[in-house]
Design brief:
By secondary structure, this protein is of the alpha+beta class. The protein is built from 4 helices and 12 strands, in the order ββββββαββββααββα.
Length: 180
């Protein structure tokens, strides 16, 4: 009944005709907006009532969305991970050898459990990050820039995760970079 549009800045709930790809959206009336500056996404399960959904939390509150089935839920979550920060990285990736280490972060080779693709996961220690406001601003800027870039010579950011100790950036792993 109420379609949603995902932009780089917000998730918009709209009123109006059915939305189709490539259609002019200028006539739609926006009835609700969730600002998406580094929003958090969390998978929701209610097995008692057979509900499958997700929760988006932004700076000005949160919304819960429920889907008709698990496949629809997975599709929404997979698309939203490109613009959101997720929580449980250990459910999706198996960590392997350390590729490098710096003063704020370490980079590990990891394998995505679903498709066995390799990724480089940059794990930034939150305790060191919190030592200065400039560090936090720099990381937010890095995430924002990496999400916007799409070039064959620049490493692609796939997902961002956060837990109590780390912020994890899941980056495309290229063996060429590791061999240099």
């Amino acid at each position: 009944k109420y379609p949603f549009i995902l932009s780089k800045e917000a998730l918009l709930q709209c009123e109006g005709p059915e939305i189709r790809e490539g259609k002019d959206l200028s006539g739609l009336k926006v009835s609700a907006t969730l600002k998406l500056k580094n929003p958090r996404i969390e998978k929701l399960e209610n097995t008692l009532h057979n509900l499958h959904g997700f929760k988006l939390t932004g700076y000005k509150g949160s919304f819960e969305f429920y889907c008709e089935n698990v496949l629809e839920q997975d599709e929404w979550i997979e698309r939203l991970r490109k613009v959101c920060i997720s929580y449980n990285i250990s459910c999706r990736y198996t960590f392997g050898t350390m590729l490098g280490k710096g003063s704020f972060a370490k980079v590990n080779l990891a394998v995505k459990r679903r498709d066995q693709k390799k990724y480089a996961i940059k794990s930034i220690e939150k305790s060191k990050l919190m030592q200065g406001k400039r560090n936090i601003i720099s990381l937010e800027r890095e995430i924002s820039i990496l999400r916007k870039l799409n070039h064959p010579n620049i490493i692609k950011l796939h997902e961002v995760y956060e837990n109590e100790l780390y912020i994890h950036l899941c980056l495309l792993y290229t063996s060429d970079a590791a061999d240099e």
